[in-house]
Amino acid sequence: MAHIRAKGFVLRDQPIGDADRLISLLTSQYGLITAAARGARRSRSPLLASTQVFALSDFELFHHRGRYTVDSAELIEPFLGLHQDIYKMICAAHLAEVFIDGLRDDLPDRASYELWGWSTSELNHSDDPLLTVHTAQLRLLSQTGLKPPLDHCGFCGTNLNGSVLFSYATASVSCLSSKCQSNLKGRRIHLSGGTAACIRHITQAPLPKLFSFTVIEDVRNQLIEFSENWLTEQMEKKYTRLDMLKDLE
Ligand SMILES: [Zn+2]
């Protein structure tokens, strides 16, 4: 039994009962936790805004037998830009789903906490929310051990810095020599030099520089396609939330 304090991002809020909320909270010290917020959906509840999805708040939590309850919460940043634009809201909800699936509960995870903070700040102002989300998603996968191997040819070991051939099924990459290509199993795609360089940037850049890049349309589109396929293959799950964006266009 303990009272704890933690700053955290609300990744998901689910209604329970008449007026309560169950929130998925990403904290720096305690990782991803689930907490009940009693009465948080009442219009006059002090928890109404601070436990709303995407909010960053300062929480006082009660922890007992593996369950958390919100005692109080002070709103730091509501990220209103994500609520006021349906396109951005869908992007953020998708990213939250990937974070929740990719992180293990109750393990301290400062890197993921910081990535979420940088990503939602970027998304809040982004002119290209879809590119922002795929950048953040590829970075999360890389940080959690699912980095696409694009640095060296998987067969001859040569450093790669132009276009490459990539197989999702075997998560392997080949240089363009015919000998190495013949060893690459499964359906292959040809990643342009620009796309491969962009993916390397996303997996390696210091966090404050993660979103500081510009790409031509072809690279943007191939990057997004790569990110979608890599996510599906690695998580063995089809994510459908972003399909809603097509109906909005
Ligand atoms: Zn090779």
Question: Describe it for me?
Answer:
Helix 2 runs antiparallel to helix 3 (110-125). The mean pLDDT is 95. The relative contact order is 0.12. This protein folds into two domains: 2-78, Beta Barrel (OB fold (Dihydrolipoamide Acetyltransferase, E2P)); 100-248, Recombination protein O, C-terminal domain (de novo design (two linked rop proteins)). The protein is an alpha+beta fold and 249 residues long. It contains eight helices and eight strands; from the N terminus they run βββββααααββαβααα. The chain starts with a strand and ends with a helix. It has a five-stranded mixed β-barrel with strand order 1-2-3-5-4. Residues 153, 155-156, 158, 174-175, 177, 180 line the site of zinc ion.
SSE map:
Blueprint: E1 2-16, E2 20-27, E3 31-37, E4 56-64, E5 67-77, H1 80-84, H2 86-102, H3 110-125, H4 129-143, E6 164-167, E7 172-174, H5 178-183, E8 188-191, H6 193-204, H7 217-235, H8 243-248
Parallel strand pairs: 3-5
Antiparallel strand pairs: 1-2, 1-4, 2-3, 4-5, 6-7, 6-8
The structure holds zinc ion (ZN).
Distinct helical segment count:
8
Major beta-sheet overview: 5 strands, mixed, barrel
Per CATH, what is the topology of the largest domain? de novo design (two linked rop proteins)
Classify the beta-strand content into a percent band: 15-25%
Q: What low-confidence regions span 5 or more consecutive residues with pLDDT below 50?
A: none
Helix percentage range: 25-40%
User: How big is the Rg?
Assistant: 20 Å
**Unique ligands:** zinc ion
Task: Quote the average pLDDT.
Answer: 95
How would you write the strand order of the largest sheet? Answer: 1-2-3-5-4
Any idea what the shape is?
A: elongated
User: What's the total number of strands?
Assistant: 8
- Any idea what the CATH superfamily of the largest domain is called? Recombination protein O, C-terminal domain
CATH-scheme architecture of the largest domain? Up-down Bundle
